[in-house]
Each structure stands twice: as structure tokens, then as C-alpha cells.
Amino acid sequence: MNQSDLPDCLSAEIDGAVAIVSLNRVAKRNALNDAAILGLHRFFDNMPPEVRVVIVQGNGEHFCAGLDLSEVRGRSAVEAMHHSRSWHLAFERIQFGRVPVICVMKGATIGGGMELAAASHIRIAEPSAFYALPEGQRGLFVGGGGSVRIPRLIGVPCMMDMMLTGRVLDAKAGHRAGLSQYLVGAGEGMAKAMELARRIADNAPTTNYAVMHVLPRIAEQSISDGLMTEALVAAVTQSDPDTQDRLTAFVEHKLNKVRSGQ
User: Fold this and answer.
1) What is the largest CA-CA distance in the chain?
2) Where among 180, 201, 222 does a domain terminate?
3) Who has the most CB within 10 Å: 50, 104, 146, 231?
């Protein structure tokens, strides 16, 4: 997919097997408008075949200040519902797309920005990151999948507190709550993301896909159903030619070390 296919509020670059998608509305703290949501949907539907990991970040000092509220006013209930569903479709492409997605959070990560981050698989926070769900103070409710994804990260009580009281979590509190898996130093988010992305890109694609798509679904199943699903997916991944090549290389390497007395 070419940069020319994306709106001005998004940019994308390819670095080997890693794609870096940047929110580019710096003057609005990267608030998401309709063009950005459509652009994200389009990118994740049509990413180049060589891409095996995507990093999402925000240009400037902030990740994403959420929904651009200037686009909310005047909508009917039906229009608002379809708008929410457009976010659901775009973020579904992120969470259950072709490749793992890493999110780098800094500065404002609020409202729809939290919803976008929650759809990714690995979240990295810099010290400047702060989290809020101000919808409750604005007469709104989350509409980008936040009610489904965010409680699975921080729990219902924490999300309820944030929405009812306007509580803001700083980077450390958000990390403790489960919003990030990595907390790094100032300006270190992209370097950490690239380190992890290259490591993930070296995995067998079938295994990455299974981790993304099957692991969260097993977590929602009963124990017996989950174990059966696990057995089936384990069989699929083990029989993949890429996996067989990796296993053969590993075993031969071990045998060679034994033969050489190492």
C-alpha cells in the first residue's frame, strides 16, 4: 500500500518486515477523525505482503487524544451508531488482522486513543503517557470497542472509576493497572518497539497468527473447550512447513554440538 493511498492524517513507512504507521494530526494531539479511521481500516486491509509486524505511534508529543469531538455534534442516533461501528471494523482489523501490532504510547492516550491502543497486542509506554476516559464527563459513552477491550486489560472497576470520576492514570499507574506491558524511558518507545518487532517478525507467521487470534478466544472458552482448541491449533502449527524447517534446524544444531563435545 502506498502512502498516496492514505489520508494526510496518517503516514506509513516500511522498514524490512516492519511497518510503522503514524498518526499525524499534531495540532490536535492526533485526535481521530473519520479520515483517520478509514485510513487505518484501509491500511490494515491492504498492507504489503512482506510486512510481518506493525508499529502504531503518534507524531509529536502525544499518542492520541481520542475522538475529534468536532465530528460528533449534530449526528442522529442512527448516524452515531454507524460511526461507532466504523471504529469497530477498523480496530477489528488491528486486533484480528494478519500480523501482530505494537503500540507506542506517550503523552495523551485518552478516550478513543485508549481504545486504539487496547486493540493492539503489545503496548509500550513512555513516562509522559497518561490515560483518561473523559466520555463520562461529556455525556458520552465509549464507542470504539473500549467497553469490550479495556476491561480485559484493567478490569471493570478501574474503567468504571475512570469514566465516572474522570480519574487520570499516569504512565506508572497505567502500567500497574495493565495498560502497558513495557514501561521505558523518555524517547525510548520507538527503539523498544523496533527491537520487539524484529524479534516477533522472526517467529513463524502461523504461530504469530495463532497467538493473536486463538489465544484470546481460548481465554473466553470453558476449560474443556479451550483444551480442545489448544490441541487443534498446536497440531496445525506443528505441521506447518516453516515450523518443521525450524525444528529440523534446531535438532541438527543440538546434535552437532553434542558431536563436537560442546
Assistant:
1) 76
2) 201
3) 104
